[in-house]
Amino acid sequence: MAIDLSPYATYLYCVPAGNLTAALLATTSRNSLPRIIGFLVLCLIAYKQWTNIPNVPGPDVVRGTAASGTVANLLYQTNLLFLTGIDPNDLIREKLADLSMGLRGRINGAMKIVQGTRGIGTSWQVKGTPPHPAFYEPNRRSPDRWVFVSRQLFILIWQYLFLDAVSTTFKGLSIEDRAREMGPGTESLFWNATPEQWARKFKIGVIGWFVVCRLLIDSTYRLISVIAVGLGGSSPELWPPFFASMWDAYTIRGFWGTFWHQSLRWTLTSWASLITRTILRLPRPSLIERYLHLLLAFSVSGIIHVGCDLGSGIPLERSGAMHFFCSFAFGIMIEDAVQEAWRRLTGNRTEKSEDVPVWRKFVGLVWVAAFLTVVTPFYAYPNLQVPKAAVPYSIAEKTGIAPEISVAVVGMIITKFWLGGEE
Predict the structure, then answer these.
(1) Where is mean pLDDT largest: 55-64, 127-136, 200-209, 234-243?
(2) Residue 309: strand, helix, or coil
């Protein structure tokens, strides 16, 4: 009996797209005709992926992730091919390939940069990438393959259980409670919001980002790393932690630039630089270049997340992704102004993060939490007004929420105190 793979076409197309991108990097130069033709083929593949998203099996969150991944991958491929413009000489300089390699070897070298959007181990490695936990080795560079896979699997299991328990609890909200706390228009209520509505805003804005969204994204990353490393297609050192410590998120800039995953950063900054530095040729350093660059980077992120909304079944007119992500550029402007005023007041202009006193970090965390509480509902509520599962299969519906949470908490404790949890 033939197996119907058409529902998985969005994922399967990633294989030819990745290999074609790697082949173009390994054999062509920027703006060469073969590279341009190859890019047109990549656009066609992305179109085929996009049109198949409604057929992707699983809950809406899976289709949304597939949609945003399709958009992000094409933007990243464009960055590699034309914006950063990596060519065979760059691969040799970065020791991803050498002249003695055959074509397959050079393509394999290029594949490392195609698959690793943070540029791990190269001069393109994005700022803010966390090091490997000291649990592996003192130098944090070369974890043993099977120790790495085993640790990732252990963490992945309790993350799945925790997400399942949270998702099951959230799905249990009554229609009346959901409409009252997160119904259309409630995201715009501030002075007239009820205590229950403010509590929901806080849960979605703070707990949602620091815990639920973080674990949802991190668990996906760990699953991919287990497959890639476990099957021998990649090495552990190319898979450092996806998130840094939440205690680095005492500013909005620190939330996105240090704590949050940096997998989109190279793409976002390259596209922003194309406009501010290549097209507009704005002077550097300058305030207009700095903050326009910031706004454009968040705008590209907004575009990617609009794709996530569309894939999840949220119509374009109801998507709050662009407003949400662009708001952080203005939030950073506010905190930069406050920090500059503080530096002028105190005369301390060289303070490092580790020298920031605890009370100021606490105040900063309150500021970040307040900002997320206010702006997140504009992005999240359209997705949350209909009950949706965060995991493909619920164990909590069989065993109950309390046992699952208990196992997850034990897993967290073991990770923290016995498995060197630094993520």
Answers:
(1) 200-209
(2) helix
Omega cis (within 30) before 285? yes
Structurally, how many domains does the chain consist of?
Answer: 2
- Kindly list the distances between the CA atom of residue 277 and the CA atoms of 273, 286, 292, 423, in Å, as whole numbers in the listed order: 5, 12, 11, 34
Residue 50 lies in a domain: yes
3-class SS shares of the chain: helix, strand, coil, % to 5: 70, 0, 30
Domain coverage including residue 281: 126-417
Considering the domain architecture, whether residues 55 and 95 belong to the same structural domain is answered as yes
Query: CA-based Rg of the chain, rounded to a whole angstrom?
Result: 22
Q: Which of 91, 115, 139 is the last residue of a domain?
A: 115
CA distance 242 to 263: 8
> How buried is 232 (Cβ within 10 angstroms: 0-12 exposed, 13-18 middle, 19+ buried)?
exposed
In a domain, 49, yes or no: yes
- pLDDT band of residue 78 (cuts 50, 70, 90) is very high
What are the CA-CA distances from residue 244 to residues 67, 118, 156, 225, 240 (Å)?
Answer: 26, 14, 17, 17, 10
Claim to verify: residue 99 and residue 176 sit in the same structural domain: no
Residue 131 lies in a domain: yes
In a domain, 423, yes or no: no
Q: Which amino acid is at 39?
A: F
Verify that 140 and 283 share a domain, yes or no: yes
pLDDT per residue over 215-261, tens digit each? Answer: 999 999 999 999 989 988 788 888 999 999 999 999 999 999 999 99
Residue 27 confidence (pLDDT) above 80 = yes
Total residue count of the chain as it appears in this document: 423
